[in-house]
Design a protein that fits this description.
Chain lengths: ~250, ~250, ~250, ~250, ~250, ~250, ~250, ~250
């Protein structure tokens, strides 16, 4: 509603002051003192607030996830450990812990639409890829996995290109020299979300080598998320996938 | 065509050896000795090869752009200077030079569909933003500009949020602390392509401050391109925009 | 005015819809297409918008400074060169160019209150210090300069400490190893704003050595601005100075 | 006392040699062999020496804090762990351990004046924020906390802006992209002390992303302390707060 | 076989469709879901795929090494720990664990030809050197070790130069300032593969000092592998050694 | 000759003291005061000293190249500009200036043996590649060029792989993300010398992105030279090529 | 002995071939296979080889220290832990472990001459300072300690300056901003060896802040050793001290 | 004079108040407003203040050098250009400009004592070496130059070692991998001052490679100055040289 219209409705009594106040505040949140849970995030961004568990206490995590789940019936926690999981499970018995991906999910998505491809260069990139895959799945995407297709044996990738080309959005997860993102980017027309990982020998500097390589990709149609940020990659890909299937909502 | 089917057609004479060879080579290119012009890029990625002019000689640039234009009727050169332009104009008289964006375009896109929003934090970010805007436009997107809406005066952004929310893809261009990407990312649901610029005082280290900030954005649904890479940002946004309007092709 | 009260006034007709709309938009700005001049900045932050001239065209600079001056009767441009100045002078004949500080000022502050000390380690730090000094002066502070008092000859500093201690806020400008900030910080009780400069031999890496040194200062009561950011240092010091003299407004 | 006057008093016998020597040494300290406790720091900088416990042995910590407490009746230890605390408690039974902030306090401040606002972007920034809050409180400031108001859900911040504007000094604590400091800086007129934290995914490089972002803040009136240095931020804010209430002492 | 010829054979029935398909796929691999074992790597690069064990689970490691061994009768695992070894030994009882080199080998090379020299600057560089030595040995090279010949006592190196000069390829392993590579490079005519290690005090930054030194070597005929990457160095040297003895195969 | 044998010859008069002294000094050089021309380098390393012209005066360059040419009849200068060339040409009239490669050659190699492949990712990498190609040629290698075969259009590379596989050593020259080295490394069995270039947008940081990518290459059998160091890459490849054809000399 | 003379002696039989060979080898060492103990180091550099224990096994450490002690009657091991010590003590019962300095000494220096001052900024810098002090003492210097005299309370330093000025060489040990080196450097005329430590908050980056500060010191007559390298600092200071007392030997 | 004694003399009239004041201020300086010329530096550090000309205006430079020369009859300016020189020559006609070293000297040292060796790795390091040599000479040292003795042809260095060993202090100037410092450090017993230069190809990062290499030198008895800081190296070496000849003064 436009601001002018709202004010006109208040002026002529169509809308109560309280309703207008609520509408103007517009974005509501719940104050847990140590956290302000953002209940309007789903309305704004299409998915409920996601909880980054690392460095949060198990108890904080459980309270926040519980508050979100109570509103949305669906909640996702990333970078979780077993202690986080136990605290969450105590209040949300349906919680599931995906250990290698360090993800806690509660509830299941209503639909699985479209096609998001998650590719990794090697086996050791799989935990980050799983973070991406589960995130995309929670956001309602149908997910296809293509693991260990790095460029040291490029025939493994070329052999699957036709399938990968069917995806609406592609996540390329790679450490070391991160060449996978460029090679895929040169072979497909869907947007590629490149996710560098911290996998590698000495001078990868915690993923810096793959990050810089991906930022400098010679293949257009690629954008990059933070090192090891499978969540961000999966979320971005799911957004593109959703718009591709449903158009802009 | 599946490989097996192709070979079957060769075996039964439906397809000539020459046609099969061509089909198998599949991706063709033109060899100018100093460059191998990639004529199949449009088929693969949805847009003809784009020419990165910097460090190419004017003559090389003109030959490559001419070769591409001859096939596709549309060509884009980035990071061009006046000398590049003169050499290109000599062989392609319809060439247009967009000086602040350092872009040469020849030909016009067949359509302008959807809605791509290009936002900048400040006035000095505009050249990079124009590179993004012209790229997106060449790729067939309708482009809307929102310039100088940085967070030092956040009301300027909040005042335009409703319009920006209508876009299918958003490019956020910012230097210094790059906060614009996070703030927009928290307010919209379309994918945000964050483009850091090298604008700033001392410790921005050529755009590193904005780059790191954008990679670390707390707002999900954001991915990042290289510093000052307006082309990459515009291209990515145009792809998302196109899929949103037309679905996956 | 509280939101509830405003809405009540609209509801009972005390306030017109238009006035309420204006009030709610609250922060106004002027759209020059390439810039959105922030006319409410003075209300919000105590000083009109300051123009960062670098990378702006002379014409853009002149238009923006003119728009601000028209409202506030006072305007400051930083990182300006002679071309910027000529363009500004053409529309604002009272403009003054402080060349070594790269500052354009138009108008003079209404008052000069309190005491801001600007100290430098060496002679080559003076241009940055002058940027700080002129900024603080434009913001209404009385400014005292203590130049070339670096620690290689610490008696030069100790000799002036008693004067420096009288300041309400101190700006310490130093390149190389930036030790001045720590030494001053250990000798005074006013807040110290440390401003690293890019002055120095090889491994100062454009001011990084002084920046890191100042961030790691062992003397509490010190905070740091960006490398060569005299403007930021002078502005911060002027704010502290003003609150010290006038309390919170 | 001026040096000349002191010497005159010695010359005419008004002041004894011993008294003059003491006065000239001026700043006294206590030598514990492994530490020289700076008993004149309170006189010089307005607060007794603060003990950085990390890497000190529990015994060293206890001896130093005890020496300071004996003179000033108030002592603050930062970066302390449980072992430090036990050693301190053994000699100073009133010691209190603030575990998440890693702070030991002994004694309470005589007053709580003014208004210092401590804001965090997220829940995981709270330990650093508490270091800042307790430091400011020990230095005599009234402290107000605004936690988890980061820009991913900017309405949470906007909702509290009016309160935050009342503060004499504001500490903005944020990791990741550190945008909070710029957004607050653009909305208030009090000085903002930005404190980056090491919270975040891969390419935050131990807080570097937030640090660089804050140093490059487009909002004037902001200065930065070291990564995770809640103590430095709280101390700086308390100084500004004190001067705002009491003027320069 | 040339593509045209193959197609001609298919057309005239000399080759079956299935054989052609296989030939065209050309490079085969085995899909273990979490890994795609590259069985054609030996054909392509002269040695079977090598398994980088770090971050792989023991079970993944055992399955992959077993699959490779089944085909090639020889397999090498690097960066392995005792748990990896136990899992591998359970399925491949002939597995040997070289603990300080963190290498698992199964099978022995058919030959030991030529001469590869492995030199270290110090004793603490030996584990990385052993990774190189064992890799070169598995790849069929005769290996000679020259340990602790760093430049602080250059006579130790000069004393052995005549022997080192006999090698077909030389691996220079050094941490700290990495000078060994340059000094050897200036004394021999065989190619030198420089391998920086992370050995050293503070500002070696995890091997960066040696890496940069080696990249900047003033001695031509030197190339560098990643920090602590003994495997890469040994593999490269073995390739050069093999070509020197056998010519290009 | 072994030291013991030499001394025996001196003892029994077979060798004169002067000859022994000369032999023991062993490596001779010519002192030009500002340079000590290393005339024994050819004996030691298989090729005369190469002159790095950058930052040398034209006169120094000419004197050094002349001294080397006088002994070896062949001399190579790298990083030369037109002024260096003119000074050299004045004393060595046969000097040839290869402008884009910034190389001066005098004399021609006696033979062109084997096969060195020089590949580039893009057109803008050609100057560095030419430095490599001319260096390898001067060192007696037959050189084959494969330019603009980067991974954004990987069919251009795959189309030439069979030819590239015939080389005894391969130089892979690439900027941006440097993926070319890994992709080639995965497809061939000859040693690959990876040469990163400083070509690229913002976050390539002067070639750092390609350098790190190449150091982290997942393809074994690759080693790396310094950024833009075509000379080093060509020299290394020529050494491997020579040993492959002639064995160890 | 000059080379020519030696050869003449061999020629005329004055010197045996064996003696000449030994003389020419000149620098002898002992080969322990994993280490080549440099027994001529004392002759060359004035002190026996020092053992860097970190990453060496206890057994290696014991063998090397024992070999050195056997020749020189004095041996120093740095970066040692308790396990190293036990292994050394088993073979050298007189070994002493200086735990906080992580140093093992066996034997005592014959003299303590001159005056070396070891200063630290804080208490937490003491372990590194002790490494320096014990090293200097083992090298025969008389050592004076000035601990916790950092610039946050500069009167503590000024109070001791007269004593410090008496030293022949000064070691300044400091972390954080490392200002101590510059301040001392400005106050004394003896050479200052600056030793940065890794002590500090976030952006000290493992000692980088102090290292850069010290390298950029505005006070001439200062040189820097590696981060936390107390050994290097003490050794350098001892050399200067010795030459000052005894002249060049 | 001890403080107590001075005060006693004032008390009993032996010393006038004015004399005491002077003595207590102790270090005098001359205030040129833009510079505080430190006339007591010679007394404190053994040599008059040295003027760092870079970024100073020619006029500032001339005034400062003139003021110093007036007192000491000897003055040294570093990093000077032709304009600085002309301004200085106008007021000090005896000024001499050493162009490649960028040094202005006025006056000559009274003596040339001892032996300082200045070594460079290559010809392009000579300008920095000359800065060191002229500085040492101005400080009264006899200087010996050993240029172009880098490790790529180590016999050139070994050939001169016996001479270099005679020096009281050695400056090792090198770019690229900076190995010269370590190699010399292992061969001599005098203190070595290592001076990295910014000479080199790509990844030397402005001298960083040589700087890190030198800081990590495996040869004890070495300390490092800033990149390209010939002045600092020469000054340090001259101090050590002077103390070696004259003992501590």
């Amino acid at each position: 509603m436009e601001l002018k219209e709202l004010l006109a409705q208040v002026a002529d009594g169509t809308m109560s002051i309280e309703a207008a106040e609520q509408e103007l505040k517009q974005d509501s949140y719940e104050d847990l003192s140590f956290a302000k849970v953002d209940h309007s995030r789903e309305a704004r961004s299409g998915f409920p607030e996601v909880v980054f568990c690392e460095r949060k206490t198990p108890d904080q995590t459980a309270q926040i996830m519980s508050a979100i789940y109570g509103r949305s019936g669906l909640v996702l926690g990333t970078r979780a450990n077993a202690e986080h999981y136990e605290a969450v499970k105590a209040v949300l018995p349906d919680a599931v812990f995906h250990e290698s991906a360090k993800i806690i999910t509660v509830g299941e998505p209503k639909e699985q639409i479209g096609n998001v491809a998650i590719c990794t260069a090697g086996t050791t990139d799989i935990p980050v890829a799983e973070e991406a895959a589960l995130t995309a799945w929670m956001c309602g995407a149908e997910v296809h996995r293509y693991y260990d297709v790095g460029v040291a044996g490029i025939h493994r990738l070329l052999d699957q290109v036709e399938d990968i080309r069917k995806a609406n959005a592609i996540v390329a997860v790679a450490g070391m020299e991160g060449a996978l993102a460029s090679v895929i980017g040169g072979l497909v027309n869907a947007p590629v979300v490149a996710c560098p990982t911290s996998v590698g020998y000495g001078a990868n500097f915690g993923g810096l080598s793959a990050l810089l390589a991906m930022l400098n990709s010679c293949a257009a149609g690629t954008a990059v998320v933070n090192i090891d940020n499978g969540f961000g990659a999966g979320f971005m890909a799911a957004k593109v996938n959703r718009q591709t299937v449903k158009g802009k909502e």
